[in-house]
Structures
1.
Amino acid sequence: MLSLLWLIPVLPLAGFLLLALCGGRLSRQHIAWVGCGSVGAAAVTTALVAIDFFSLFPAREFYQQTSWNWIDTSGMTVGISWYLDALSLLMVAVITGIGFLIHLYSAEYMAHDDGYARFFAYMNLFVAAMLTLVLADNLLLLYLGWEGVGLCSYLLIGFWYREPEYGTAAQKAFIVTRIGDTALAIGLFILFTQFKTLSIQQVQSLATGAWPVGSNLAMIVAVLFLIGAVGKSAQLPLQVWLPDAMAGPTPVSALIHAATMVTAGVYLIARMHHLFELAPMVQEGIAVLGLVTLLLAATSALVQQDIKRVLAYSTMSQIGYMFLALGVGAWPAALFHFLTHSCFKALLFLAAGSVIHSLHHEQNIFKMGGLRRHLPWTFWTFLIGAAAMSGVPLITSGFYSKDWILWSVWSSPLSHRWIWFGALLGAMLTGLYSFRLIFRVFFGEVRTQPTGESGLAMRLPLVVLAFLALTVGFLEMPHTLGNVTLFSHYLSHALPTTALLPGMDESSEAREQLAVTVAALLGIGLAALLFLPGSLFGARGTDQSTTHPSMTLLQGGWGFDRLYDRLFVQPWFAITRNSSDMVDRGYEWLAVCAESCHGWLSHTQTGQVRWYAASIAVGTLMLLGLFAM
Amino acid sequence: MILQDFIALSPILDLGAFCLVTMLAIAFRRNHARIAVCAFLSCLFTLATLPWAATVAPRAVTTLLVVDGHALLYMGLILSATMVIVALSYRYLNSQFHEQDGVEEYYLLLLLATFGGLVLTTAAHFVSFFLGFELLGLSLCSLIGYLRTRRNPLEAAVKYLLLSITASAFLLFGLALLYFESGAMTFHEVGVSVKQWQTVPALWLGGLILVLVGIALKLGLAPFHMWIPDVYQGAPTPITTYIATVSKAAVMALLLRLATEVGILELPPVVHLFSLLAVVSMVTGNVLALLQENVKRLLAYSSIAHFGYVLVALLAGGPPAAEAVTFYVIVYCAMSLGAFGVVTVYSSEGGDKDRVEDYQGLFWTRPWLAGMLALSLLSLAGIPVTAGFIGKFYAITAGVDAGLWWLVLALIGNSVVSLYYYLRLFVTLFGEVAVQEALPQQGTVQRSEFVSWTAVCSLGFVASIILVLGIYPEPLIQLIRESVSNLLMVVAQRP
């Protein structure tokens, strides 16, 4: 069954082609069948491949397959070739599994949209590109997938293209991530000129052999790859596109801007971990970047009014945790948080979509409230998602993954104490903003009348994801609680295990865990105090649209948009406005020249044979005179 | 002559026999469809003899002809192109030929011209060269004026007649001078005497230049290009296609053989002459095409430029040049068949559709036809995934490897200029539908009749060639490589 590996990305691609070529002629039901079916088939194929992969797993750590020779010129051979190991199998399972649930959800969510076929075509294309990205055996194929997901993200953010704002948001996302893509491409070029190969495994083993730790080239390439990852994963300083990307339909936000695409940066860094280990300073930078991003995003999430923007900032913040884990060398912890985050964040977005769906596309949380009784399914699943995100101890998956990260930060030799304190503050803020949403949306009086709970196709994914959000955490439990190491054991065949500082024992781990638990519960408690109607301060702040400068600063995501506007966009517009004529004039002159030459030469085509014969004679004489004499 | 000679000559003998059969068939009973099928089958059977002939190739048959891989490859090209043209001609003539009778001889003349083309590809002697040249030219002359009661074809025929006589005069005089200095009539012996000379005699060089002028006239290289647009425009469109593809490919095959066997590319004056012709042709062709409003003229000018590109490849010298030239010629034939084929099919509906405005919004009324033209235009412009890109890439690679920087730069610059007029026509195809066109055509009988299976098959064949060569050119390149080594081997082998 392993030989079916190539089928996994091809199935969604086939779905895309079918929908793109004859989507207009299919009925809505057939479109949904094709759209969901192709991803579902990919998920089933993944399961078959996984069974076969595990049958020989610890002995055979990876499986390679070449489908096609893509490029074969002098000195450069690039294949359409796939590479499956523990890391890529994890990614593929998340992409196809959660992807299928989200497709199923979309079948109902988008049911009345005009662009039904277009939507599923883009979604299938996205899944195909994302699978190519994570299964690629070489960097060029990875880059193809990387650009493919970027393109689909653009297309889906601007899905409702009749709204000019949405188009602008799509362009913003595309252009900002493009900065990262360019850096990644340059990194690729450098690796190729150095090692004459683009195979991910070969490049890394060659790099480990050729470059000493901390060498300049290793640093440069690592920084370029980091910029690429930062752009895709919406981390500082390229984070500005993600909140605006919420313009797309909610399933898109769930799939692309929460569960899969934005974690491509995490995957890239984990995949290239040998390279990053050669550049310890860059790795430290990743940790700091992750920390700053998670704090900035968490504080911004506190004051947003749009439900989807809250979730967008929370995504940014949670990916900050993953970067932090990568930065301190806790590779498996980062991937574990990726797994749990995909489950609970997809759940939160889908539940939010369910709320929005029942409120006639109302997204402002100050116009929501009291939905607990009207939308019980949505409420309970949303509650589970929010609890998992805040890290409610013992019962939620988010607790285990976040605790693992914080413990790694505490115990890693690559880390510092202040980073841990920052991350702990972030954990508290997570509880605060998550439950602010719960209390605003589901408690208090009803402000907008909902139409009622949605159908089975939307509820089923919610329930499955809620189940996962509670249970995937049990794959890995700390020494102090059960000591389950399924996940870290599994990933140890693809990623290095986390190093520990000397003197870290179970008692210090228990103390650390207590701190994390307290922080999370403190956040939730604070939220209850501040936002639960009828509590101490709950009556106040029914309308938070204050114009305090600190408030607007936070709401605008710490003013990065305005900064970039002043720093790059405005100067660029100024330049193009002033100098366009000068540059154009040269080209215009060329065009005028060509046209006048045309006019002049046209006179020679008189249509008279005598003139033609004469020109032949003169031409011959000229040639004879020039070359025979 | 022994049996093997007959086998080697079988394509030419076969086509000659079929010319007689066709003539007799016309004499006994006139029937347009039957004769068209007969002509098509003649080419098909001749094509089928090529593998047989290849079993004894390379082989010199008398001193006049050489049958080798090079000749056979070009024969295959010429015969396939003729088949496509025959397939397109039938419906075109049905709608355009209004005289009392005599439409059948068209196919006989076409076969005779092709016969001349085959002779040219194998010619290794001045006499066979001249025979092939004249057979091709004279048959074409009557074909150009075949719609004999119309003004434009007649004008074009007279022009072609006068100017090809001029070319023949130059050619004959040049051949006489070559013979006068070297005392030989075969390419090979002339080449041997060139190698023996310390300095090339001026009269010989003059003779060579006159011969090259004759060839340049047939290829339509500037400044001997002026007849091209008038004749292209005036001739019946299938014949225009024929001039653009078969006639030029045959002459190019001859030029390649002449260049390798006589070794003229080792003479600096000839290199300079070709460089000059190449640059002037590229610039003139492209600049003249820029604002052209007649599609046939536009393609005529573009053909002038394309043969400038071919010359750049030729100048690279050696096997890569021969490869690049042959590949480009094959690709060019496919693209021209595509572009002119669309004009032919579209004109078969009644009235010559050769103005750019006739093509306004064609995509919305006849998507497949417009798609075919668009594909040919993209290929002519050298856009990737089409054969034209690979051809141009090959030509540029050959030029770069030989260090012909100025010529390569000129080629690239001219390709940029050429984009303008190709894309202009391309955009027109997708423009708004002209009002008078849109309404009356729908649902009429004409339309269903117009999409004939011959047109679909032949254009589909050409389209697949353009696409396949653009994506997977390897097999053809291998074939050309073998034929080129064949060509060079013959040169080395002969005493």
2.
Amino acid sequence: MTGPSAEELRALLFRALDEHGDRLYAFALRMTRDPDLAADAVQEAFTAALRKLDAFRGESNIATWLHRIVYTKAIDLIRQRGKESPLPEEEDGDFGPEDDRLARTPAWARPPDEILWGSQTKEALEAAMKQLTPLQRAVFTLREMDGMSTDEVASVLGLEPGTVRVHLHRGRLRLRALLSDHFKGVVRP
Amino acid sequence: MKCGCEDLGRRLTDLRDGALGESDCAAIEKHLAECPSCGDLHRDFEDLARLCHESERPRMPLAVRRRIEEALK
């Protein structure tokens, strides 16, 4: 199979920077929770991509490929710099009692729309996301915030689509529980 | 399919993802209409998705973009 030459790949990466740079940076920022680490992760991903011409030859989608490299770099950087050390152990891909317990969290108190969709709730969401495991955060960010399909997320993270859905469900349950506490604080009984 | 609350909770993500067949979807929709706690879970998931959709995506700072452009030259 023939692929792009080194110069063609460089041009592809420049185009990808224009088209996907913001998405990649946002993903790195949500993973690392640190603007400097996020910048390093994305820069290292692009330079690594430039060196991995052979690896790209088998890829159909440069955005998926770059997200995969950014994810790997972000995890490496947060490990190296002790940002999240030790990294929380990832739970396996099967449902368990903890998932059932979270599913029984009381429903959100229904705040008025201006609170539900307001900036305070969005800040609470960003804060709650920091409490997910890195894998849950990656799955949730790519699927819910970036709008990737489950198959694309699976491809980025090297997981089966069914496993992505398990981590996505678990992330949703955790965020719902965390935001439930937020709404309790802002909605009068 | 078994459609008790525990099982359904786990399938809500499959439902939202379009990963279920027609009969499973119909059974879940029926349960959601009849079970307040599962209905609440579903509604909270819907609101969570909307919150995410409406959240502002951070933009790459210009200085970072310039650094990457330099590195690619």
3.
Amino acid sequence: MIQKTTFLGISLRTPAHRRALVLTYYALMLAILGVFLWKQRITFGIFIQTVTLGGFFGGIRSEGVVKPYSEHTPEPGDSQIQQLNLNGVFPQQRARLLDERELQARDRAHYIAYRILRWTLCCAGAAIVFGMNFAPTFFLKNSPNLLWALVIFVLSLPQSVILWTEPEPLPDSTLTLVPTT
Amino acid sequence: MTSASLTLKTFGIPMQRRAARRRLVVVTYIVLAAICCFTAWFARTYTWSYGFALYAAVAVGIFVFGGQGRFGLIKAFPNKQPRPEPPIVDLVRLHLAPESIPAADSAGLKNDERELSRRDRAHYLAFQPLSVVWFLALLLAAWALHPPSWLPLNAILSLLFVLALVASILTITLPAAIILWNEPDMESPTFSEGARS
């Protein structure tokens, strides 16, 4: 599911590194939200920022650590066509498409992300009720900024789950060929 | 994926057929949309009524579609063994409906591998429209800060409120609705008994 082993110069080989990257990303997003709340300014340029930052880890974009989520549905006799490359799919493109295990990992990540999102929305709902009672002006003024944070969270959550849960790859030494008799 | 209470009936209507389940999904969303409109209209005067649509969505999620616990058409999504019932429940059941004791066995409440994969896939499919709806809400919220001259601010805010309600309702109900929509026709118990004899 992960297509790059380094990202911005950081090695992503171990789960610890990937988790550190996810935590850093959310800390950065919180800092940006803080700046937005402080400046109290939002413009239409924010939509480009939202897609760029929400898809920072890939998944919804083709570039990034996580492979794009687009699917490859094999057609009848696909393997032969694949070898002859008659359908115009080049090997490097095909390598970026998800195999069966990766499709499962993708769906599983979305399930976990969905559960996290549900609880987040519950907390957000409680915060809105609380905020509208005690600081309605602040809440109404900053609702776009807070929604921006929510959208960033929604867009980035499945990729973060994948980075967080992807196991460590087997060391090369375990992948030795055993000669058969 | 359907629940092992295995009655497969909602409001007395059998749900083995996909067409019946699709009708149920459509009717449920029409009712939820009506409740949404009612809530949006009612909340202008009575602010405490904000939660009506959400309560309805939670009720649909738990009791009609399922996926949240013992009730509903779909087995619980978290694949855990349900909490054991207190012994008094079995005792009462033995007296009132002894034939229901074998059906109350909770072993069938867990999802098998195929059902887990279908559950995950439904959540993946549900995530896409949900992201779009929240993105539209962001668009409207930003628009509300610089409202155009031809559209009053109150209209944008009302639309934003309705959109947030719709997004919340979809978050609660959409994966279960996708499963009910896609699951093929099931074998009817009466039919299979007839075929066996």
4.
Amino acid sequence: MPGRLTRLRRFLFEPPEAFRLGPFREEAFPDPVHEPRNLERNAAVLGIALGVAFVVCFLTGVLSHLIQDPPGWFVWPSRPAGLYRITQGVHVATGIAAIPLLFAKLWTVYPRLWRWPPVESVAHLVERVSLVPLVGGALFMLATGLINIAQWYPFGFAFPGGHFWGAWITIGGLVVHVGAKWATTVAAIRRGPPPDTVTDGGLSRRRFLRLAFATSAAVTASTVGQTVRPLEGLAVLAPRRPSVGSQGLPVNRTAHSAGVRRTATDPSWRLRVEGAVRDPLSLSLADLHRLPQREAVLPIACVEGWSANARWRGVPVRDLLVLAGADADAEVTVESLQPEGAYRTSELNRLHAHDRDTLLALQVNGQPLNLDHGYPTRLVGPNRPGVMQTKWVTRLVVR
Amino acid sequence: MSRPRATPGGALFWSGVVAGWGLITAGVAGGLANVTSVPHWLAWLAGALLVHDLVVAPFAAGLGGILRVAVPGWFRAYVQGALVFTAIVLAVALPVALRLGGDPRNSSELPVDAWGGVVVVVLESLLVWGLIRSLRALRRTLRSP
């Protein structure tokens, strides 16, 4: 039996040379970037950049998930007002910047997919198997994220859950990879860049690396203007621009697609404030206009990476809570006229519910809200994802 | 300095394996329990890997082989650079350019002509690259005795 095991082990770790065909051949990848020292250096540099990018995307993505679906221990503050705008803007911009770097890294190490022998030891086998969740997950995350920001949903699964759980698989693969490649990466960086010689034309190691980072800079510069207003003019590849939309503001979901055109314009519409209150309220639009108004400049910060500031005017939610006799630490569920959808309600924790700038807005940029922006009234508050700035509000349920 | 072995090992590696596979297991378990269509989710995860490794990368390798034969060595780097740059900018622009998503009644969606955007990005980048090359050439000229 030991003889068989030895033969099996030898076959797995030292397969016959006759099997070495196609991409398994010694000279299958003759490009300068695939010469061993060039490959090691570029793989190290690109690996570090991608590692940082994926950790940034992971942390900002998990934060966004926690904000939208908070566990009991997590309370997202209402200040600073633009913090979510920054974290989600960084999430999307970093993901886009990582696309060219990922392609460059995968091309750099592609010959290793066909290395000979395919595995050298049990540890090497574990390392190679761990590349499946890393590479598959990384490509999945960037591809689905990019498609999602164009609001195209060909996935067959709901994007938020698929993207979120895919992130854990990817980051797990990254942790294994860091452990496996730490020593070789540090050594490659310490050795410094090898001489950048090209004998037969084609992209040299250094030019290839520069091309990867230049492409990353170009795709970032041409999309980041969807959230960084001074760069809006450069945003030729961004799905949105901060100033394009009715009333000078982009719209994510229209009244038509939400199915609220009739109910939102019904003269019998009332805002009800109910639940754990002493005096339940039922207010018409005219009643809301008669209450003290407050103005605030706040961003709509979309999970898809665009954001835009607007000047909002409306009734502070905390004034309505006082009027209804709610507790000082009350929390609120905000309900929309939308008949269905994952975002037809949103939660105001105690910090958001009692922030002076959390409004039921009646105006935007000096004009009465139009239907697509949430007429008759919409929630707008500081430091909240756009999907939680509920439009076409009809009820506040106090807890 | 001696080169490190290609085969990994040691406490750092095995700690990473334990921690990493813990996270991977959590991700798979969470996905299986929470994602709305698990077969589609798994198909996209595996498909992304297979499409890259068995379609995109072999295509790039094949194209590289053709360029090695068809384009003179002194000019090949420029052709390779232009093709890689344009292909990746196109890939990033594709979901917006194809206009397959969004709501056509929403006037704020997709306000840009992404095909034109690709041309603009390529031309702008060419301009920046040319400027950098010119400045470097000028600096070399000024430094030379």
